[in-house]
Amino acid sequence: MTDSNRTKVIKALTVAGSDSGGGAGIQADLKTFQELGVYGMSALTAVTAQNTLGVQGVYPLEAEAVAAQLDSIGADLTPDAVKTGMLFSSGLIRTVAQKFRQYGWTKLVVDPVMVAKGGSPLLQQEAVQALIAHLLPLSLVITPNIPEAEILTGMKISGMADREAAARLVHAMGPRYVILKGGHDEEGAQVTDLLYDGEQFIYLQSPRIATRHTHGTGCTFSAALAAGLALGHLVPQAVHTAKAFIQAAIEDGLNIGAGHGPTNHFAYQNRLRGQR
Ligand SMILES: Nc1ncnc2c1ncn2[C@@H]1O[C@H](COP(=O)(O)OP(=O)(O)OP(=O)(O)O)[C@@H](O)[C@H]1O
Ligand SMILES: Cc1ncc(COP(=O)(O)O)c(N)n1
């Protein structure tokens, strides 16, 4: 291919932790970008030693190393959309937010990752305030699950009225859109994600899949959302595709490892190709 006949390459950036087991974190994000036709870039915030059984170690990077990665990307490879995952500490959050402001990266999806499925902390408790103060005001979309929304708002969430109240509170912290994910609500045959734009609530429902292979669902969902935004879709359309992507990925979950297996990042495209 010559330079002149190159079509525009759509690029997305994930700023997140590495999951050595490949189901969550940077690895889930890059696989999802690739499957949705978007060139993936990454800035690592931490290395985790992790598998389907749990998290065996967390090794955060120096803020300088994270800043250097973002500078390398900012100097040469402007992303069409950005997402954040595991950010670990208030120092890393401040660094990342400052770089986003410096480079003017505003098509930003914040997945406020706090705790891994097995219970290991991926964000220090003292860093929640930094997330609220520095990153939420910059974000286009935030994608908390129910426990994360409880920590952000300080309220206990049970039932749909509580979810709407929590979504309003999180929206008031700065993001233009809030998606309060319902994967942790074990009741009912449907999983309901709530999208709030500051005016109206949209409910995205899908059949609840009975499986324990849900490692990395949140990462994969927010990466699919960022990929859609990078492609130029508006938030409601990008959420719709992200929901279809994660639904297929959970339905065809991968039974690897002895614990909570990963979702299947090939599933969505396999179905489009009729190869299920
Ligand atoms: N059992 C399930 N069946 C169908 N969809 C699900 C199921 N569990 C989660 N989802 C979907 O997966 C996406 C991620 O939701 P979830 O609430 O699990 O996020 P999360 O807790 O942040 O994920 P993670 O635990 O990986 O961090 C949402 O769109 C949610 O509706
Ligand atoms: C590096 C990293 N980032 C995010 C998650 C959350 O995913 P899950 O809650 O499914 O374990 C994780 N486990 N590891």
TrEMBL record:
Recall the GO molecular function terms of this protein's record: ATP binding; hydroxymethylpyrimidine kinase activity; phosphomethylpyrimidine kinase activity
Keyword Membrane assigned to the entry: answer is no
Biochemical pathway: Cofactor biosynthesis; thiamine diphosphate biosynthesis; 4-amino-2-methyl-5-diphosphomethylpyrimidine from 5-amino-1-(5-phospho-D-ribosyl)imidazole: step 3/3; Cofactor biosynthesis; thiamine diphosphate biosynthesis; 4-amino-2-methyl-5-diphosphomethylpyrimidine from 5-amino-1-(5-phospho-D-ribosyl)imidazole: step 2/3
Q: Supply the Gene3D superfamilies for this chain.
A: 3.40.1190.20
The name this protein carries in UniProt is Hydroxymethylpyrimidine/phosphomethylpyrimidine kinase
Question: Which family does the similarity line name?
Answer: Belongs to the ThiD family.
Q: Which reaction does it catalyse?
A: 4-amino-2-methyl-5-(phosphooxymethyl)pyrimidine + ATP = 4-amino-2-methyl-5-(diphosphooxymethyl)pyrimidine + ADP; 4-amino-5-hydroxymethyl-2-methylpyrimidine + ATP = 4-amino-2-methyl-5-(phosphooxymethyl)pyrimidine + ADP + H(+)
Query: Where does the Pyridoxamine kinase/Phosphomethylpyrimidine kinase domain lie?
Result: 19-264
Q: Which UniProt keywords apply?
A: ATP-binding, Kinase, Nucleotide-binding, Thiamine biosynthesis, Transferase
- Family annotation (InterPro entries): HMP/HMP-P_kinase_dom (IPR004399), PM/HMP-P_kinase-1 (IPR013749), Ribokinase-like (IPR029056)
One GO cellular component this record assigns the protein to is: cytosol
Instruction: Tell me the Gene Ontology biological-process terms attached to this UniProt entry.
Output: thiamine biosynthetic process
Query: Which domain of life does the protein's organism represent?
Result: Bacteria
Under which main EC class is this enzyme filed? transferase
User: What EC number(s) would the UniProt record show?
Assistant: 2.7.1.49, 2.7.4.7
